[in-house]
Amino acid sequence: MVSRNNAGLSRERIIVEALHIIAGRGLGGLSMRRLGDALEVEAMAIYHHFPKGKEQLFNAIAAYVTTARVVSGLAEGEGPEEEELPATGIEQEDSEQVENLPWDQRITAWAEAYRTRLLTYSGALSLLMHRAPHTLAEKRTTALLEAALEEAGLSGDAVVRGRDALLGYCLGSVGHQVRYEDREDAPAEAEALARFLFGLRALLHGLTR
Amino acid sequence: MVSRNNAGLSRERIIVEALHIIAGRGLGGLSMRRLGDALEVEAMAIYHHFPKGKEQLFNAIAAYVTTARVVSGLAEGEGPEEEELPATGIEQEDSEQVENLPWDQRITAWAEAYRTRLLTYSGALSLLMHRAPHTLAEKRTTALLEAALEEAGLSGDAVVRGRDALLGYCLGSVGHQVRYEDREDAPAEAEALARFLFGLRALLHGLTR
DNA sequence: ACCTGAACACCGTTCAAGT
DNA sequence: ACCTGAACACCGTTCAAGT
Predict the structure, then answer these.
(1) Domains of chain A by range and CATH?
(2) Fewer beta carbons below 10 Å: N end or C end of chain A?
(3) Do residues A135 and A189 lie in contact, with contact meaning Cβ atoms separated by under 8 Å?
(4) How far is the CA of A5 from the C1' of C2 (A)?
């Protein structure tokens, strides 16, 4: 046993460690060799879990970041793949928690959680701009938003357009915040959240009247 | 004269060529060496115009993409720097064209132009997520949006919050569109524009009631 | 099945040198 | 002032080999 073979390598461990490096040194600071070092493994071992290399790892990170289970801090299970995942008890708990609220509170609760998740992994935000992996989480989000908007009285094209407006607003609101957060005139997080909710309420109001 | 020295190198030529490469091969396909080849120059010549290297070039690209003059297809002058640029006649013409419209049409005209610009350079969209260069164009946008919202009756915190909601919505709406455009369920551009305007109208309505 | 280690082509950047 | 060309450290990825 001359090697530092760590035997515990998995897709999720790799993704989590990659996100750790991204958080610390930025997306440009993530290299396969550095990732291997952090995992106490030769860089080439990563290719056994992501045969298509760094691009596939990026896709997996994008899927991971946009998967709801992550935000709950309950990400010890399997990591999300490009393929769909079977539902987990945890995710169902999350949605039941919210199931009996009025439509606008359901959307607001989802939006706040999504925003938190994106902010937590803000270093990976630029990965999301060109990747929309098919995940179960994405389908659930679509269903949640469309059902809520229908409950609010929307129908026809307005449902899918309203849903995209909300998805776009959340993505862009976080993007705008992250974009400006290294500037001297950047608002504190409390004010950033207040602005997010202000715009969200306005959008919801405008969509449903 | 043994070299391929092209003598016409400038910051703007470099930026434009870089955006061309990004459009063709993606952000990851842009390397200093490839950029040098496209400019018919040794890669190291670029460092004379961007002494701090690729990161500085990325910042300049981000500034360029978010500068209004570009969208008019009138970008033959000097490129935007990280520092402010003096106003140009072209930009003034643009704003006068719009100056006498009602506030909501001013915002909508700006938003459509901004969206077009971001879509034109969508390959560089992820560069914007972590860069907010101080440009004259940004100050003008801020002024335009805030003045329009005040004219609509907003005051106090609502002005800056409404302004950020609009900036976030535009960025995110384009981001959401680009994100999904390689998927089979992606809407055509006409529908994408319709969705953008639908959400924008809703947001404007909600902000001002 | 899972990981190593050498190898290859490519990359960003520095620096001394050329004009 | 502006560009070249060699050099260096680092990178992604392939592949044969080890266990």
Answers:
(1) 52-208 (1.10.357.10)
(2) N
(3) no
(4) 9
